[in-house]
Amino acid sequence: MQQDPTVRRVNRWVVAALLVAACFWGRLLVSAASLDPAREVRFFDANGPVPEPSCHGPAVVDGPYLWQVCGQSLARFELAKGRADLLWPAERIFYVSAFTKDSSGAPLVVLDPTAPTALYRVRAEGGLQALKTFELPVVAVVAAADRIEVVSGFDRKTLHTLANGAWAERAFPVLEATDGQWIHGAGAEKRDGVWRVVHLRGPRKGSLPVDAEVMVSRDFAPFEKVSTVTLDAGHATVVESGEIYPHFKLFHLPGSNELNALSLATTAGAPYEWVGDKAVPLAPPFTGYIEAYDAVHTSAGNATVVQIRGPLKATRIRGEWFTAGGGRRLQLTRTRDGRTTTPVDSFWVNVGYKLLPAESSGYWLVGGLGSAYARVGPELERLDRPSFLERMAGLFRRDRAKRNSDIYRRGSAVVEKVAVGWTLFGPFAVLAAALVSLRRPSARATAWATYVSAAWLATMVVCAWSAWKILGFF
């Protein structure tokens, strides 16, 4: 028995629509099987939700909180809740250069570079209270009992002490150099109740490799040599005049008030690390330079997170080394045993990512701009993988990744959101019309099935590009 030509036309329209729909649902399901998306941070100020700013500089882990500068405000992250509060605005801030807590438990921060540099108390209800301004950069802050101590300066450093409501100042010794030497006022730390000021001194001219002296003043005593560091081609440059210019920076870790690293390297050498009173090559010897130090500040003690930028980006946390790779899909590898994470998919995690310790165990993987994150366990297993429904809702969220991929071409993104919804759920209308025409054959039902199928295919000419791109972020 020959099939009615009208029915054949309906079948062709319906089959064509369902085949196109299958392509888009296939892309979504392939993404679901192969990608492990990061979660997005929601930002709030005193008035409610705000667009995500760009976060930068060192991060300080403070129990369940993470402190970092975002835009023109100090931000407090609660990654377990996926939110960040921007309640501490300040002018011209750039990053957190020092962090500690006073006797009441209130955070004390130095935001650098401000003009002038200032020490602030962070109010729990919001806002920063300036305690003192300093003409020169602050390199260390210590708070104990009712006493706050701040060290500022370059080659000539000063100790500022707040006690009994009044500030007092005391100058540290000055290390003199001859005409044939250079001096670098590296940093200061307080260890075992004693202040140490660290300078580096080396020959102004010569050839590489060359030794530089590590000079330390303890408890305001004159400087004495405690060790040497060898500068090679990866640590210094010799210009045509024969003068030596070291590529170093001594990091003061915000939160621990201890010196932790001498970044005496470009991409061609191994950085030095501060251990006790000596500067020793960082082990294992990753080639590159120290990009950042992040701090872990807990009641049980302080810790460090060091990131090395070079041919391979490496992070040390709790004594373990991790490396990362994988392009947009960031995958961590623990160097001790080669264990890896499931690749985390987000451009905004991969760019300048930070690996930081979680409060109890495991790690937070935080994007360099602060808007994306993922939680991994002690064995690098993903602990906060979004559910299918959460990922589906994410397709309709106007997040930073989609905006910066030029997917949202209009401010409201209504067209793109409608395109995704119509692409995914419009075929169910096609399927319903086709089933009605099969179960209750009539000229009207057949016409409706044809019209619905043709209309969906026609609108896909407009929707296809946006929907295809957005489904790649599932």
Please characterize this protein's 3D structure.
There is one protein chain. With 474 residues, the protein is α+β, with helices and mostly antiparallel strands. It is elongated, with a radius of gyration of 29 Å. A hairpin with a 5-residue loop joins strand 33 and strand 34. The strands form seven sheets. A twelve-stranded mixed sheet has the order 3-2-7-6-5-4-26-27-28-29-30-31. A four-stranded antiparallel sheet has the order 1-34-33-32, with no helix packed on it. It has a four-stranded antiparallel sheet with strand order 8-9-10-11, with no helix packed on it. The longest helix is centred in the N-terminal third of the chain and has 30 residues, at 5-34. Helix content is 21%, strand content 42%. Mean pLDDT is 78; it is low at 253-257. The chain has a domain at 5-37 and 403-471. The protein has six helices and 34 strands. The two termini are 47 Å apart. The protein has helices at residues 5-34, 347-350, 388-394, 400-404, 414-439, 443-471; strands at 39-40, 42-45, 48-50, 55-62, 65-70, 73-78, 83-89, 95-101, 107-112, 117-122, 128-134, 138-144, 147-153, 157-163, 166-171, 181-191, 194-203, 210-218, 224-231, 236-238, 244-246, 250-252, 259-262, 272-275, 278-281, 289-298, 301-309, 314-317, 320-325, 329-334, 344-345, 354-357, 363-366, 372-376.
